[in-house]
Amino acid sequence: MAKKFEKGKMVPVPSTAIIPERDIDKTPILECRHLGIDFGGLRAVDDFNLIIGRTEIAGLIGPNGAGKTTVFNLLTKVYQPTRGTILLDGFDTAGKSTEQINQMGIARTFQNIRLFNNLTVEENVKVGLHNQEPYSALTGVLRLPKYWRQEKASHERALELLSIFNMQDLANTPAGSLPYGAQRRLEIVRALATNPSLLLLDEPAAGMNPSETAELMENIVKIRDTFQIAIMLIEHDMRLVMGICEGICVLNFGRVIAKGTAEEIQANPTVIEAYLGKKKEG
Question: Are residues 89 and 118 in the same domain?
Fold first, then answer.
């Protein structure tokens, strides 16, 4: 029997958005206003509006080609928006680079795993810790005491993060030799190493079997509760989405067609039509 996760009550905020009741007195971690991007004459995303609470687990779903990954690329500035505004923790991200967005608090994983296969598991996590290393290049070259103190701290932090997925014993294993599911988990740990306030997961359950997916669901909730961060995921596994996501946004052809709780989305005829097609009369 599938484990049932406790979700926060969703309450309305100004505009048509909803966020978890526990976040109502805090600035939303993410607010998108009329966001859009054109590729040539094609409007890939148009008039995208979304608010995510500070500790919300949110879902972004829709049929293949709906524009979901494009939205993630806009949020992380892989693409610069053609129009609209993205506020992260109340700050406008206009003109920021991908690296600056990461430093501001957004981390992500990808549909196609992007690990450094020749590095160890621990070294991959340390890549995520790089923007928190306070020593200078000279300190690193000369191996001064501050360098060794920071290396010790990075080692301990990497093992601490790996323990979330019980992967600390794999610290010295080459990342490329890990099973597929473990590589997926490592990519999430590396993203967490950047100390995000918003974690974007692009199809985290892809390629996982049912037991791995069930474990992933528990760990996503654990990550949210442990780090008190928001998580937004793109996922085709509707059992996962409906099981843990509090607010769900549905895209089709680059436009939002529905927003609401899992129960509201499951009962929405527009969403059902987008996924299943319109029933023929007769």
Answer: no
